[in-house]
Amino acid sequence: GKISSAFKNSTDDADAPTWCKTREDSGLTFAGRRDIPSSVCHVSFDLPDTLQPPVLLYYQLTNFYQNHRRYVKSFDQEQLVGTFRSNSSINGSDCDPLEGEVTDEGVWKAYYPCGLIANSRFNDSIQAPVWLNPNNGAQNQTYNMTSNGTAWASDADLYGYPPPYTVNEVIPPPNWRQVYPTYNETYPLPNLNVDDSFQVWMRTAGLPTFSKLALRNDNENMPPGRYQIDVYDYFPVLPYDGTKSLLLSTHTVMGGRNPFLGIAYIVVGGLCILLGAMFTVTQLVKPRKLGDHSYLSWNTDQPSTATTTGRAPRPGDTA
Length: 319
Known about the structure:
Blueprint: E1 18-30, E2 34-47, E3 55-62, H1 69-72, H2 77-81, H3 87-90, E4 100-102, E5 108-111, H4 116-119, E6 125-126, E7 130-132, E8 141-142, E9 170-171, H5 196-202, E10 210-217, E11 225-233, E12 243-252, E13 255-256, H6 259-285
Parallel strand pairs: 5-9
Antiparallel strand pairs: 1-2, 2-11, 3-10, 3-12, 4-5, 6-11, 7-8, 7-11, 12-13
Family: Belongs to the CDC50/LEM3 family.
Main location: membrane
InterPro entries: CDC50/LEM3_fam (IPR005045)
């Protein structure tokens, strides 16, 4: 895959980043309930500089159109905020085409949460970076990162808890079945009010290439060294010809590194200079008196477009 970096110190002497993929049949245990087999991508890289907090770890997707009109409106805000929505009210709602389904018992039940956005949530499990052989020691150290605080604080108000349903009234969306095969006492309804990862995903992106915050550390420096990040691979990108990648970053009082804004400002500034030069040349070659009232439309003699033709002469008409 493609790798890029931008550090204060030179990375010429650093070992090249590497990655490999393994298969773990045990996979991850989600909330102590379910082991899910998975492919695991092990990414190793050198960090030449100390990253000062906040240290932010993003996932980046390409060719994923969260801004598609049908996708961006496919959710039910009342259901998410904690208002009871009957099966009949969900059926035919904005959640179309993922409103619900007929269960094995022959009963139509709504998905919770319903809609395309919720169903397609990013579900790769990104582990915290591990500092390999720190200070030539034998014991690896995990750089602690958490998903808490990755969503906007105000987003929690958009999701109510407890959910307005019992476990028998709704079913999980199709792409949630690995973690929630069904809703019952063993697999209770999710608490979306505290699920920052879900809230981050529900805030849709405006472009097909976007990054979303997955983990952060707001208190500790990330020292230089060799690190490894394990990613449990559950989110498919090949069906829509997309890619996914990791982005490790930090920011200052001036914000984070964003070359797009710099390029955009340079392009717009260049266009302004070009247009300014064109107007200057035009004014020098063919100047126009500023504030000349003779250019006003009502001060120019224009032939009337309302003149009638073909009318017979009347008494008193002059040629």
